[in-house]
Amino acid sequence: MAGKWVKLEQNGTGPGARSSHAISVVGQKAYVFGGEFTPRVPVDNNIHVFDLEQQTWSVLDVTGNVPPPRVGVTMASIGSTIYVFGGRDLEHKELNELYSFDTISNEWSLLSSGDAGPPHRSYHSMVADDRRIYIFGGCGNAGRLKDLWAFDTIAHQWIMFPLPGESCHPRGGPGLAVCEGKIWVVYGFSGVELDDVHFFDPVTQEWTLVETTGDKPCPRSVFSSACIGKYIYIYGGEVDPSDLGHLGAGKFAQEVYVLDTEAHTWKKLKDDAEAGEHPGPRGWCAFSAGKMDGKDVLLVLGGNSPTNDRLGDIFFFIPSL
Fold first, then answer.
1. Do 261 and 232 form a contact (C-beta atoms < 8 A)?
2. Catalytic (active site) residue 144
3. What are phi and psi of 301, to 5 degrees?
4. Cα–Cα separations (whole angstroms), residue 238 to 196, 297, 311
5. At 292, is the secondary structure helix, strand, or coil?
6. Cα(85)–Cα(158) distance, rounded to whole angstroms?
7. pLDDT band at 272, cuts 50/70/90?
8. Model-level pTM?
9. DSSP labels, 114-154
10. What CA–CA distance (Å, rounded) separates 253 from 233?
11. Are 184 and 198 spatial neighbours (Cβ–Cβ below 8 Å)?
């Protein structure tokens, strides 16, 4: 197993360098929201759109209930609708509103807030299947969390699932994936970087701690990930936190690993790239699954670097199985 990195050209006025932002792909367009250039200071609340075919940026004219700027926010799409949850505002307040963004009408809507749905949080993770969005963990008002929630986009109802057992520590910056009908939690940060894997089965309503084998990646958090078929791909992430916390840059990884969710085995991929086209070590990126020339890919935008400089480049990782 291997894969190839491709650095994309960027035309037009894009979001610029930032980290702790989110990206979601609908069709051949990638939508970007949130993030910071200066640590802990939200940049803007624009929707930046990148046309993956034309490789051109634009800023949308939007209507409706526009969310305030935030960092540590998540996005996931179902059909032509993008869902945005949580994050942290300019006053470092944790948020818990759920918004939808209609990519056809360019209209924002507030779907839930207050006591309806998950408690306030940032640096959580969110993924979607064909009907539900799933939210796990993050940094809450009273510390790190390990709760799993789903929002049914047809019934417009929140569902809280059973909490995992003691083997699953509360965490920020975890990997989250819906693979083969199960919700997978991969690694994260609990005060130390973690290297455990768990899955939740919505049918049995049970959590399972997964013993993985193979070329296992070292503990990490705030990495990029995507589920393609039965495989969960992870790239980069923070492997050693900064003594300055979120104000500094820790040590970042640059490899790509893949977890086979059936065999529970890890493999480190050979990640070819032309000169200057490898994204290098980074974390706190915006990332999403997408398509390039009909192939499923991992899309990575920006993030933080080992020098604590925010990045603004955009890459595809194309797996070759």
1. yes
2. yes
3. -125, 125
4. 15, 22, 15
5. strand
6. 13
7. confident
8. 0.96
9. TTSSSPPEES-EEEE-SSEEEEEEEEETTEEEEEEEEEETT
10. 14
11. yes
